[in-house]
C-alpha cells in the first residue's frame, strides 16, 4: 500500500484539485495497521505523508488489506470487507474520482 498511496502525488494532476482543500487519512488495518495522509491543496501537487498533518484529517478511510487489494484490482468489496469512511465523504469521493481518472476509468 505504501507505494500505491505515494503514487497519488504523481498520478493526480494538480489542475484537477483546483478548488479543493482537504486531507484524507487512509488506513490499512492488517497485517499491521498503517496510515497515510493524502493532502490536497487547491491546485497544488497532492502530498502524501506517513505523519499526521498539524490539522486533523477531514476524512478517514479504514480498510483491511484484502479490501485494499480488491480496490487495486477494481473488484467489488467482499461481504463484510467494505472500506469504512468517516468524515467528509465528498473529499473521499473526489480522491476516488481522481484516482479512477488517472487510471483511465
Give the helix/strand layout.
Blueprint (H helix, E strand, L loop, with lengths): L1 H10 L9 E8 L5 E8 L5 E3 L9 E5 L1 H8 L11 E4 L1 H14 L3
Parallel strand pairs: 1-4
Antiparallel strand pairs: 1-2, 2-3, 4-5
How would you characterize the overall build of this protein?
The protein has 105 residues and is an alpha+beta fold. The protein is built from three helices and five strands. A five-stranded mixed sheet has the order 3-2-1-4-5. Strand 2 and strand 3 form a beta hairpin. The radius of gyration is 13 Å and the shape is globular.
Characteristic terms for this protein:
105 residues; alpha+beta; five-stranded mixed β-sheet; 3 helices; 5 strands; globular
- Distance, first to last CA: 20 Å
Strand content: 25-35%
| Poorly predicted tracts of residues | none
Percent range for helical residues?
25-40%
Helix/strand order: HEEEEHEH
| Topology, number of strands | 5
Indicate the structural class. Answer: alpha+beta
Number of helices: 3
The coarse silhouette is globular
Q: Largest sheet, described in full?
A: 5 strands, mixed
Report Rg: 13 Å
**Mean of residue pLDDT?**
95
Strand order of the biggest β-sheet: 3-2-1-4-5
